[in-house]
Specification:
Elements: E1 4-9, E2 18-24, E3 27-33, H1 46-49, H2 51-54, H3 56-61, E4 70-72, E5 81-83, H4 86-104, E6 111-113, H5 120-130, E7 135-137
Parallel strand pairs: 6-7
Antiparallel strand pairs: 1-2, 2-3, 4-5
The protein binds iron/sulfur cluster.
The site of iron/sulfur cluster has 11 residues, from helix 1 and helix 2.
Amino acid sequence: MSEQVTRAMCRWCHSMCRVAVHTKDGELVKIEEDQTDPRVNMIFPPTRACVRLAGAKEFIYHPDRLKFPLKRKGERGENKWETISWAQAVSEIAAKLAEIVKKFGPESVATTTGTGRTDLWVWQRFMNVLGSPNLGGQGTI
Ligand code: SF4
């Protein structure tokens, strides 16, 4: 199958560059700036120099990339892990959160993050439903 080019928007940071994603047989070949973007030589020179974009293939296909939840086996610091299902991970985390909220109240849970992304509202809504106002970080500031 020949190489395909799909136009997309990168959301790895706030620049939201328009990009051209090259794929072949379902595999990423490269990502580069979208030359059809009228802003390409005006306000989006970061796309050309972006190290994230240049390293996208390595990021996506790196053998050490985490793709499934890992649960610690043994003692902390032993660096022993087992792969668990998403359902098990969500269930165990939910049970622990419920236990903390029951023992210490919802305001005992606090979170922080870097700058906001499109999923910031999900995190804010989660904390709202949990009953804790304690979320902070650049995005909320
Ligand atoms: S291509 Fe680079 S500069 Fe542009 S949005 Fe993605 S990460 Fe940010």
